[in-house]
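The instructor's notes for this session suggest beginning with a concrete chain rather than abstract definitions. Hand out the sequence below and ask the class to guess, before any prediction is shown, which regions might be ordered.
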Amino acid sequence: MNRNKFMVRFVAAAVSILLLSACEGGSRSGAVGQIFNLSGHWTGSLTEVGGSSNLASSFTISDHGGSVSGTMTISGHTCFSHGNLTGTSFPMPVNSEGDNPLTSDQENSNQGTASLTLTSTETSKGIESVSITSGGSGYTSPPTISFTAPDDTLGSKPTATAVIEDGAIKAIVVNSPGTGYRFAPGITFSGGGGTGAAATATLSSVTNNIIFTMSGDSSSIQGHYSGTWNGASAACRVGTQGTISLQRS
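After discussion, reveal the predicted structure:
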């Protein structure tokens, strides 16, 4: 009986040692500190579909267990220049040499995906449309349309063109929506040989929202982006898209 108890204890001890060795061996052979994580400063380039390419960009990111936040800036993009980032990152469940088969994680997995949403740090917008309240009379050519300055000092004024019919303004086409308005701008008409025209502007209802979808590892990620933005071009409100490539700096 004593011998049987001794054998049971011996086998149990041996199994425990083997399990401990396997766990320790997996941890040592795993890539310590290489779990997919986006925290840090990233630099790279964006390319616009139908626009500029290799636009310098900078991302500063905090990644807390897959919950991501941060900021980004970019130079020369038609639609946006900066904003706040929120989103998620996910490590890819890839088994590789050195992973411990007795644990559910993959110690050597340094690859993953990320979905980040860029939103505006500003509440200002451009204009969506211009409504005629009085067509005026006596116009022989389209008058010049002027808008009051934007609320944000870094904003830009819209541009628009009047359409004349039978001496009156029948329609106004917004060429550029402008930026930096918290309130609808005032509108004045000059020239064209007529008088009495009046109109009101409506601010854009488009949400500043760009989604970046990327994949890679903890040193380099690539992907694409798409969304809408109240940018200097009216096309931004319809949608902007392109590709992105970032490297940890």
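Then share the key points. The chain has two domains: 40-120+208-248, 127-203. The chain has two helices and 14 strands.
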